[in-house]
Amino acid sequence: MKLTIILHKDFLRLIIVVFTFTLSLQTFAQNTSHRKGTISAYWGYNRGWFSNSNIRFWGSNYDFTLDKVSAKDRQSKFDLNTYFGISNITIPQYDIRLGYALTDHWDITMGTDYMKYVVVENQTAVISGEIAESNSRFDGTYDNDKILLSPDFLHFEHTDGLNYWNIEARRFDEILSYKKVSFNLTEGGGVGVLIPRTNTTLLKNDRYDEFHLAGYGLSAVVAANITFFKHFFIQTELKGGFLHMPDIRTTMFPEDRASQHFFFTQWNVVGGVQFDLTPNRSI
């Protein structure tokens, strides 16, 4: 089943609804004392969806913008070796995060959301701008013209990857507990930087694929958590936000750049551990 991409106002409505719902659940929250000073860590995988994006490309002999370009993620097909083999676990789209409980309810966390962003090839886009002296069939001046994003014109993806390094503040509430199992809710938001490794082939330039600090992001998250024996947990997260990259490298020539911004939605499934740094105390 094809999932609908959450865009602009729809994304904002989702965040408002989610946070209203989570705040109402906190009415039933249990005593989560003794969390202060605990350390947590998790690892997991994600699926991502992206809004359409206007992408501007410029260099010494071209400056043009493509309107409403669609893109998708590229999660690896599931097999045990790819997802659980030590040498391969960073190949799929993954999430890794460390957290520290500043209080019994509030954590500060830092981590990476490793997504993959792939412009759909052979889609038709609207182009405005100019391309000159490229020794290709694409030389010319464009004014809201249609163009096919064929491989000989443009291949553009952040697949190694769309690396969102971010810091978040998250609230943690225990909703229900039974024997050695607790059901918890966490939500928060954060900011970060984007350091993509952008795989680009533009016009007749050679492929370029290097890490580069390209911009920043803002995000919000809500998650459901099941904790076993106070130390092990499984968590599912809905995360979304806004990513702005005004400085993307596209070729080996430093003057060749691109810029874009878009909204993203991400579903994460992670597993982790938590432990207490305070001597002689059990969380």
Characterise the protein shown here.
- The two termini are 42 Å apart.
- An 8-stranded antiparallel barrel has the order 1-5-6-9-10-12-13-14.
- The chain is 8% helix and 58% strand.
- The protein is elongated.
- The protein has one domain (8-51, 75-119, 155-276): Porin, CATH 2.40.160.
- It has helices at 8-25, 80-84; strands at 38-50, 53-59, 62-69, 71-72, 94-101, 106-119, 124-131, 140-148, 154-178, 181-194, 198-202, 215-228, 232-249, 257-276.
- The longest helix is centred in the N-terminal third of the chain and has 18 residues, at 8-25.
Please outline what is shown here:
The chain has helices spanning about 10-25, 80-85, and strands at about 40-50, 55-60, 60-70, 70, 95-100, 105-120, 125-130, 140-150, 155-180, 180-195, 200, 215-230, 230-250, 255-275. By secondary structure, the protein is mainly beta. The longest helix has 18 residues, at about 10-25.
Topology of helices and strands:
Blueprint: H1 8-25, E1 38-50, E2 53-59, E3 62-69, E4 71-72, H2 80-84, E5 94-101, E6 106-119, E7 124-131, E8 140-148, E9 154-178, E10 181-194, E11 198-202, E12 215-228, E13 232-249, E14 257-276
Order of helices and strands: HEEEEHEEEEEEEEEE
Strand content: over 45%
CATH topology (level 3) name: Porin
Strand line-up in the sheet with most strands: 1-5-6-9-10-12-13-14
Name the CATH class: Mainly Beta
Extended strand count: 14
Unreliable residue runs: 1-7
Query: N- to C-terminal separation?
Result: 42 Å
CATH architecture classification name: Beta Barrel
Q: Can you give the mean pLDDT? A: 88
- Give the proportion of residues in helices: under 10%
Tally of domains: 1
